[in-house]
Amino acid sequence: TPAHASLLHVFHLREAARKTARAVPGGTARPVDRIGVIGAGIMGGGIAQLAAYRDVDVRMKDIRDDAIAGGLQHARELFDAAVSRRKLRPSEADRKMTRIRGGLDWHGFPTADLVVEAVVERLDVKRAVLTEAEGVLDDRAVLATNTSSLSVDAMAEALARPERFCGVHFFNPVHRMPLVEIVRGAATDLDTVATAHAFAVALGKVPVVCRDGPGFVVNRILGPYLNEAGHLLADGASVEAIDRVAVEFGMPMGPLRLMDEVGLDIARHAGDSMYAALGERLEPAAPLVALGETDRLGRKNGRGFYRYDKGREAGVDPDVLNALGEAVSRDGDAPDDGSIRERLVLSMVNEAARILEDRIVATAGELDLAMIMGSGFPPFRGGLLRFADAHHPRSLLEMLESLAAEVGARFEPAPTIRRLAAEDRGFYAAFGPGT
Ligand code: NAI
Fold first, then answer.
1. End-to-end CA distance of the chain
2. pLDDT for position 327
3. Closest CA to ligand 1's atom 28
4. What is this structure's pTM?
5. Distance (Å, rounded) from C-alpha 168 to C-alpha 199?
6. For labelling, which of 86, 322, 362, 425 has a CA lying 20 to 30 Å from the CA of 216?
């Protein structure tokens, strides 16, 4: 069946991605037995726990004692959960937990093989912290940032050894999301990429190597997709219809529910930085802007597109459309299910084509794997571009051209799609391994 063929395809992509020698030809990975983690927050604590789970020694550093205590507590809770799921014996969990130490100083960092920076998302703070870290690290140690939206190259400018620096972008929650984007900066050398890649594999993750660029791969594709959900609201589609159509397509949850989970403030901030980096086509949809002016933050404050009762989702908030006021159309001519699906999916395909154009990721297969492992894109469809390849590129081009004419210029087809239509070949043919 097509689903079987797709799953097999994903299996092969995953296996290939986990072989460092194949994914990073020419790079030699050095062993990573001890790591340092800077910033003991949600991500730092999660990365520390995962590393300790895999028997790597961890030293965490923060600027506040309570953050270190919080990071250790977070790790302890994850180990306890593993014990209650019978994945670990209590004694094993205790022993692994002792691998994590923390403090406010750089103790333990000079002997670390790799250091992950996971402090607040601010370029000036990250530059200062990374420069300080570089001063205490061994010359051969890899220094990596977990940034989700800042430029790896902009951070590298502050460093004396940019060749040893890269991005390792884990997704939240760290113990559950399989993808790690390994971001190779302009100056990063291959041994550094290979070491970070092999480290991610040792943690049980699926690494995808990419170049520096706004949102890297997954967040860059989610940007226009989430924004399109906002445009659909503006055109009169209901919250229920938008999320239902996405789930029927196979996404683990709809885009509006996803924004509630991420936090409407964080989603808005990410949307603004994508707009600044990528221009007009990412101009935030009016309903998302309007919502940003309310006190709704999504699940974390119990109010978003949905209501939450003691942390559990309790249906679409009937008041949300009132909160959006003039930003949504009420003329009754709302997009139907077919049009919702077409707009959501094609906004992703068009951005994916631009990512390939920009050479952020080398192959269509790696892009597909990143979306499956990092956003839950349905594996039975084999990946975003494999799904797109089931249509002739000329029909993709026609669909995008009519959306650009009827819905908005943001659907203007990416040059790559025009090229593929002219050359009569699909994404996998044009961007396969070795192309
Ligand atoms: P957080 O706010 O939970 O933790 C940040 C920690 O860094 C805090 O404990 C803070 O005290 C500490 N810190 C601040 N300045 C410091 C300094 N100079 N030295 C040492 N520690 C310092 O933040 P979170 O969510 O863990 O994010 C950390 C990084 O991971 C950010 O770059 C973020 O963009 C990225 N990220 C976050 C994801 C998420 O969903 N939360 C997903 C993927 C990446």
1. 28
2. 87
3. 118
4. 0.96
5. 10
6. 425
The dihedral through the CA atoms of 366, 147, 127, 50 has a sign that is negative
Checking DSSP bridges between strand 114-117 and strand 100-103, what pairing results, if any? unpaired
Query: Tell me, what's the pLDDT at 435?
Result: 65
DSSP 74-120: HHHHHHHHHHHTTSS-HHHHHHHHTTEEEESS-TTGGG-SEEEE---
Q: Are 261 and 171 in contact (CB under 8 A)?
A: no
Helices marked H in 310-363: 320-324, 337-357
Look-up: residue for tokens 């669909």?
A: 399
Amino acid residing at 17:
A
Task: Give the other-Cβ count within 10 Å of 337's Cβ.
Answer: 13
Ligand 1, atom 25: nearest CA belongs to which residue?
Answer: 42
23-54 per-position pLDDT tens digit:
999 999 999 999 999 999 999 999 999 999 99
User: Closest ligand 1 atom to the C-alpha of 70?
Assistant: 9
Residue-wise pLDDT for 130-159, tens only, equals 999 999 999 999 999 999 999 999 999 999
User: What is the distance between the alpha carbons of residues 312 and 75, in angstroms, rounded to a whole number?
Assistant: 23
Query: Residue 358 is encoded by which pair of tokens?
Result: 């920009």
Instruction: Please name the residue that has the structure tokens 């933050």.
Output: 297
Asked if residue 188 lies in contact with residue 166, where contact means CB atoms within 8 angstroms, the answer is yes
| C-beta neighbour count of 319 within 10 angstroms | 12
Q: Which two tokens stand for residue 73?
A: 């507590």
The residues with which 103 forms a beta bridge, in sequence order, are 61
Looking at the DSSP assignment, which residues form a beta bridge with residue 199?
none
Residue numbers annotated as active site: 169
Amino acid at 267: A
Q: Rounded to the nearest 5°, which phi and psi values hold at 113?
A: -85, -25
In DSSP notation, 149-216 reads: SS-HHHHHTT-S-GGGEEEEEE-SSTTT--EEEEEE-TT--HHHHHHHHHHHHHTT-EEEEEE--TTT
- 386-434 pLDDT, tens digit per residue, is 999 999 999 999 999 999 999 999 999 999 999 999 999 999 999 998 6
